[in-house]
Amino acid sequence: MNMSQILKHTYTLLIILMSFGALAQESVSDDPETIQNNIDYRVNQAQFDIESHNYFQAKNELDEALKLAQKIDNKKSLGIIYSKIGKLQFITEEPNEAIKSLIKANKIQRLAKDETNLAETYKVLGNVYYSKKEFNKALEYYTSSHSLFEQANLNNYVAEVLLNEGKTHLALGEYSEAKSKLQKSVVLANRYELDKVLSSAKINLGLALYKLNLKNDALSEANEGLSIAKNNNFVNVLNEGYLIISDLHQLNGEYKKANNFLKKYVFISDSLLEVKRNNLSNEKRIQLLTDNQTEYQKEQSADLEEQKAANDLSKLTTILSIALITILSLLTLSLYKNNNIRLKTNNMLHKKNSELIVSKEKAELASKTKANFLSTVTHELRTPLYAVTGLTNMLLEENPKPEQIQHLKSLKFSGDYLLTFINDILQINKIEANKVDIEPEPFNLKKKITNVIAALKNSANDNNTKLHFEYEENLPENFVADQIKISQILINLVGNSIKFTKDGDIWVKVSKLSQNSEIFNLRFEIEDNGIGISKEKQEQLFDSFSQGSIQINRKYGGTGLGLSIVKGLVKILKGKIYLESELGKGSNFIFEIPLKYTEKEEVVEEKKSYFNDISDIDLENINILVVEDNKINQMITKKILNKMKLNCDVVDHGEAAVESVKDKAYDVVLMDIHMPGISGLEATKIIRGFNKEITIFALTAVTLEDKMHEFDEAGFDDIISKPFKQEDFEKKLFNALMGENHQKAT
């Protein structure tokens, strides 16, 4: 084989090898998911470069990402990239160019309905207009950003927007609005541990308070914000803080302190300016270009060296190279195939993972939406019910005319029925969310069932139905369990039997199935000879809102929730429930639960009369503040307190509550939650900032369990649910107001 033939074969093999390489490269580079991964990497790298003040590198990364996003026409990525470019242009002091880029991002994100990133774009636009001193324009964009972040339930982002809104109101001289926005920002920043936002918000809040002539509070807030910035080395916040505190001291006539803080401001300001100049200088730009050119020259030199070495190879080396290239070609082909398989597998995994993440987010959003919906509906229903039941009880106690009594009792019945329905819905929600706590206590089971039967006897008499109770002989009576849940189960099941049994009998039976040491497995039966249930209806009987038929629902009434609640409660008590029934002959509901035997007797709490036994002199110095925006509820609560010989002041929003507690010494605050302006939660947090001792009750219609932690975090001592039971309300107030005084007296 002569030299020309060897070179010819070598050239052919090289062409094959290069073709495989090009094919593999083209396959990878054209894959949309690979391109998207490349885009995401470049955007993240650009963000890192921005934070590191490497602005030119960030610009290069964003330009490359933009080309790739245009190639696959990914609208979401295009919107994010234009928004980042606008942010970078704002940092590099090109405000007009920044606005153009951000407007592009705005249009794309609105079309793509990418509301979360659109909120971020609005925020940056607000920052640009703020820097141009177009404050009203800035405020418009901040308001839009605030609204979108709130809709997405991203309250950690809302904190920064509120800070920016507050600073803008300060610049416009609108100090009350600035104070309100900054206080809300402080609350959210505290909740989500956003120290940078918290420090800046407190510093600016200090300025707002000073402008509102609250000088002591002003310096306290500003110094606290400055301390947080120092501890975390937030240089930009320190720079802002030193200037504001210098101004505050100067306004106070403390010129020496003002001068010291001004010097610190000038020093940090100069340092920040120097860093910015270094990263924006022409020398830096030239250095980057030089580095790129040097790298290119090195690559060219390496290629020349390799070419020279190749020309010096001997014939033997060429033959060996051909053999080696052949082997490498086969290996490359194998690797290419494996790479394609791996790439497809990875793409599939990425896709499935993305689908799972989206499904998870949708499920979480649906759960939050359901909880928020139930919270809102519950509040909106219970609030007017508070007025209905409160006014009805008052009218019944005020000697109504004989012909009015029956109407008032009917009204009370309707109110109680609606309240039962709402409570049933809440109970179902708690059971489904696994948020029902078990509260075991010693109790007498036989006595408990006897009391339930006695309470339902009148209903049974109305249907001409007799109730019978059989308790197995030698079965212990005292057990430790959640007696309230057992009562709920029995009331629902016996009440259900009464509803569907006329001119008949109902038997309540309790017997022992088995015993393991102190644990008794008990069997409860509620048997009747009523209308019975068909086989096809029995299957869905324990489902929510399910009854035998629409006709049965109309004829016998009820919500269709009772048996669903029973099933959930039995499951919580680690038991099981089943049904034996035949249409026209009756039904037998059977449930089995384990109960722990105890020798302890049940502790029965005696009913107390609270404020009736206390003289007017003891009560005249007690001050109660009622915070409630509903005028009818204000009147009802005030009348209830007056009947208890207690005087109160009434305000109708959270801001007024905060000012009232500052101005006057109150013993108890009854705080509504949903109000215009700041909510009861936010007002309580602000009060706790300067008064840790005062007793604050949440007087609210919100009762969902997943909201309870918010009440604890806000600083409430207890919760009184509307509409409340008079005795419970009196007991809580008595313990809060008179407990300490009685201890001193004894």
From TrEMBL:
PROSITE patterns: HIS_KIN (PS50109), RESPONSE_REGULATORY (PS50110), TPR (PS50005). Its EC number is 2.7.13.3. InterPro entries: CheY-like_superfamily (IPR011006), HATPase_C_sf (IPR036890), HATPase_dom (IPR003594), His_kinase_dom (IPR005467), HisK_dim/P_dom (IPR003661), HisK_dim/P_sf (IPR036097), Sig_transdc_His_kin-like_C (IPR004358), Sig_transdc_resp-reg_receiver (IPR001789). Keywords: ATP-binding, Nucleotide-binding, Phosphoprotein, Signal, TPR repeat. It comes from the Bacteria. The keyword DNA-binding does not apply. One of its GO terms (molecular function) is phosphorelay sensor kinase activity. Gene3D superfamilies: 1.10.287.130, 3.40.50.2300, Histidine kinase-like ATPase, C-terminal domain, Tetratricopeptide repeat domain. It is an enzyme of class 2 (transferase). It catalyses: ATP + protein L-histidine = ADP + protein N-phospho-L-histidine. Residues 376-597 form the Histidine kinase domain. TPR repeats lie at residues 119-152. Residues 1-24 form the signal peptide. SMART domains: HATPase_c (SM00387), HisKA (SM00388), REC (SM00448), TPR (SM00028). The keyword Ribonucleoprotein does not apply. Residues 623-737 form the Response regulatory domain. The modification 4-aspartylphosphate is found at residue 672. This is histidine kinase.
